[in-house]
Amino acid sequence: MTKWYEEKDLDKQTVISSRIRLARNLKKYPFSAAISEEKSKQLIEEVKNAIKNERTFLSEMFEYTELNNLSYEDKTAMLENHIISADLINKKSPCAALIQNDESVSILLNEEDHLRIQSICAGYNIDKAWQNADKIDDLIEESVEYAFDKNYGYLTACPTNTGTGLRASFMLHLPMLEKTGRIRSISQSLSKFGMTMRGLYGEGSEPLGSIYQISNQITLGKSEEEIIDSLKNLTAQIIEQEKSITEQYKKYHKLEFEDMIFRSYGILKNCKLISSKEAMQLLSDVRLGINSDVLKTSPKANIYNIMMNIQSGNLQKRCGKTLNESERDIQRAQYLNDVI
Amino acid sequence: MTKWYEEKDLDKQTVISSRIRLARNLKKYPFSAAISEEKSKQLIEEVKNAIKNERTFLSEMFEYTELNNLSYEDKTAMLENHIISADLINKKSPCAALIQNDESVSILLNEEDHLRIQSICAGYNIDKAWQNADKIDDLIEESVEYAFDKNYGYLTACPTNTGTGLRASFMLHLPMLEKTGRIRSISQSLSKFGMTMRGLYGEGSEPLGSIYQISNQITLGKSEEEIIDSLKNLTAQIIEQEKSITEQYKKYHKLEFEDMIFRSYGILKNCKLISSKEAMQLLSDVRLGINSDVLKTSPKANIYNIMMNIQSGNLQKRCGKTLNESERDIQRAQYLNDVI
């Protein structure tokens, strides 16, 4: 089964992915902070059945995974692929996930909220991501009763999610806005519109590989469609700025631009040791080169997929063993020499 | 005609070249500082005839060039190829050179001394270089009378050359002694043995590409053979140290060693702009890689030859026009992408 992030033409787009996350809680269970282990298990069972007992084509695409039984490396790889959140890696109490086979939809059970439904589509496809999440949400609601207030909307563990329970986001590759430092002022101005900008791995994470997530901060007092529309509008402007600055730079600093890209390509193709941080930077340059038609190379996977594959968890999964930092630097270099 | 520096296997040797330089003056002319323009021309004619009127195989291999008529770029290229000295580039008064067709022997006329006979051989071949210089010296002496004192030996413009008038030198590639900083103590200790260490382009020049010239400082009170023998002994020790430190590093830091070499290779193969200084550094790494069997690449020329070809004068000669600094950086990158 091809995963959403394996799409071949992804490198040609500024938008890497579109994501919808819905926070839901079941009426008859206490919120996560207060729930007993017993009740947690019951809750997991109930939602699992809501999906798996439906004999629909959709429900058959989901696989159930108990997260507590997985190794640290496996969970890290799932985090790197944006299937689970960082919160679930070290969680001792019962938690689980229902994951669609192309990894485009995952339902996390007993995360901060009882349910986190997330739906990701490659590229600029937020409407499709919303439809997919909405469909799953409806499917589950046929069997369970959500905690819902007619004034506030969906009730959530953290009040910042109350209302729609929706977080809509785009993952963008913004190398030139980053290199020119303009990303900072964009990031600051987003908050005025109830939006926020984060790094590749969400809240508090460093912007690796010039990848930024833009998402809504406000979930209350607006409909899902309104939230998604204003996110789309702001994102369109950011994409336009990235494209325009790239064209300008490519036009007026052609050789410096090409030199930067080709050097990064040459290092990735030849290095024997490389840290994750450096590799992300060089991969970002190569992606910029492909996207701007400077580099006519065909990596064995799209650059975003390669970026996920060089992360610690995925790398160890690929090698089938635990690796220390310098072993990872070696394996990462070997992998990059081969795929770039 | 293949030039001495075009030898294919040169990269496998620590010694790039062996050089002999003899300083000679003609008895019947004033030394260079005091000579008139008229006398300078007579002197040139006399030595030219001494070589060219001999109907021997040897004399037919020499081409006569009036340096005053050459362009700045052409003279710079000759300097870069170690045919002429920096002194001759801007000299206004008559000066000329007789150059053997493989560029292994050149006779400079009206440099600091009336005659500078220099003989270069690729690799560790100082005896051959000495024989070649000695042969030319004898050939000239059949027609002219040298300024010679039975106590002091050959008289020269600068007393540091008086006696044998000999400077014997090896051009060595010492990347690991440089990287580890050991080159400094070696350089300092050489003076105790009457030897000196210089950069690629002689006195006062920066050590580009980890290339060092080791030569005798003392010309008086020792025979030519004694000077050459002690230079050989010291050089053998330096070569041994370079080899030993390379082996050690290759053994105990295998991946760091390979990573450094392959990254440099990758940049040279892909850059679109490169300064001479950076290129020399990266070429030095690639030469180290070839010499230590880490890099199995076959550049279109040996690395030392490439190092000469990327210098400003040679680069402009190759392009057939004057280039400014950034144009040279572009042409240099294109050339390196192609030959490495």
Task: Report what the structure shows.
Two copies of one chain form a homodimer. With 340 residues, chain A is an alpha+beta fold. Chain A has two domains: 4-243, 2-Layer Sandwich (Creatine Kinase, Chain A, domain 2); 254-339, no CATH class. Chain A contains twelve helices and ten strands. In chain A, the strands form two sheets. Chain A has an eight-stranded antiparallel beta sheet with strand order 2-3-4-5-1-8-10-9. A two-stranded antiparallel sheet of chain A has the order 6-7. In chain A, strand 4 and strand 5 form a beta hairpin. In chain A, helix 3 packs across helix 11, helix 7 (224-252) crosses helix 8 and helix 8 crosses helix 9. The longest helix of chain A has 29 residues, at 224-252. The model of chain A has no long low-confidence stretch (mean pLDDT 93). Chain A binds chain B through residues 255-256, 258-259, 262-263, 265-274, 330, 333, and chain B through 255-256, 258-259, 262-263, 265-274, 330, 333.
* Dominant shape of chain A: globular
* Biggest interchain interface, per-side counts: A-B, 18 and 18 residues
The residue-averaged pLDDT of chain A reads: 93
Q: Termini distance of chain A?
A: 23 Å
Question: Please, how many helices of chain A?
Answer: 12
The helicity of chain A comes to 40-55%
Blueprint (SSEs and pairs):
The structure is a homodimer of 340-residue chains.
Chain A: E1 15-24, H1 37-52, H2 57-60, E2 62-66, H3 72-80, E3 96-100, E4 105-109, E5 115-122, H4 126-141, E6 148-149, E7 153-154, E8 166-173, H5 175-179, H6 183-190, E9 195-198, E10 211-216, H7 224-252, H8 254-270, H9 276-291, H10 303-309, H11 312-319, H12 325-339
Antiparallel strand pairs in A: 1-5, 1-8, 2-3, 3-4, 4-5, 6-7, 8-10, 9-10
Helix pairs in contact in A: 3-11, 7-8, 8-9, 9-10
